[in-house]
Amino acid sequence: MLEVIKARRAVFPAQYNSEVISKEEIQTILEAANWAPTHRRTEPWRFKVFYGESQHMLGEFLAQKYKATSEKYSEFKFRKILDKTKQSGCIIAICMQRDPLESVPEWEEIASTAMAVQNMWLMAQSMQIGAYWSTPAYKQYFGEHVPLADGERCLGFFFMGKINGELQEGERKTQIADKTIWL
Asked: Could you tell me if residue 41 is left (phi over 0), alpha (psi between -120 and 50 degrees) or otherwise beta?
């Protein structure tokens, strides 16, 4: 398990090949997400899958929101947003549904959703599917594109695509011993 965890990488759309990710593969990745830890079993993670034509529509929406809301607009970044959605095999909006009873602190539900994403990332990596989690500022407008339930919000987008070959070996700046105090 440690080797799988150490092999996980952020893999960006420019690195994806054109091989299709099947709906069954996406379902397996989502099933892994569903087994994340959840305090009081609130299961706050929610996902919106953009596959095929809906990806391009999402790209157009995100690029236009970037253009409308950016204080430092760049045509290069506008094009990059569109290109990422075209290069990806699938995009999943990562959402969090707040427990209406607020039975746990909000940060715990955000953390639980993040753990669901880590499960997705590890499963994708094991399937030779590259992925990364993007959290652009304009994600706050996502509810204008796809309806969100009361108390639900978008935490970012999980871009995925098939990859060729091995990924670069990871590294950490410091060892865990330098970040740990034993009492």
From this structure: left
Name 26's Cβ contacts closer than 8 Å, sequence gap at least 6: 49, 51, 90, 92, 160
Count CA atoms closer than 13 A to 72's CA, side-chain side: 2
The pLDDT tens digits of the residues spanning 59-86 come to 999 999 999 999 999 999 999 999 999 9
pLDDT tens sequence across 103-153: 999 999 999 999 999 999 999 999 999 999 999 999 999 999 999 999 999
Domain 2-179 CATH assignment equals 3.40.109.10:
yes
Please name the residue that has the structure tokens 């995100």: 62
What pTM does this model have?
0.94
CA distances from 143 to 60, 62, 126, 158 (A): 15, 11, 32, 16
